[in-house]
Write a structure and sequence with these properties.
Elements lengths: L10 H8 L21 H10 L1
Length: 50
């Protein structure tokens, strides 16, 4: 759950922000469904391209 969000430039930036454990709360991506990508950054890029 994202309690406080900020605007990000694109899907890659949002994915990197969400997975940054140094500046953010602990976040873990357990599963990605419906994407060709294997990681969150590429899945967000794929979504942005659509």
């Amino acid at each position: 759950m994202i309690l406080k969000g900020n605007q990000r430039a694109n899907g890659r930036e949002l994915a990197l922000h969400l997975m940054n454990v140094e500046d953010n709360e602990h976040a873990v991506a357990h599963e990605l469904r419906g994407f060709l990508a294997d990681d969150l950054v590429d899945a967000f890029k794929e979504t942005e391209a659509i």
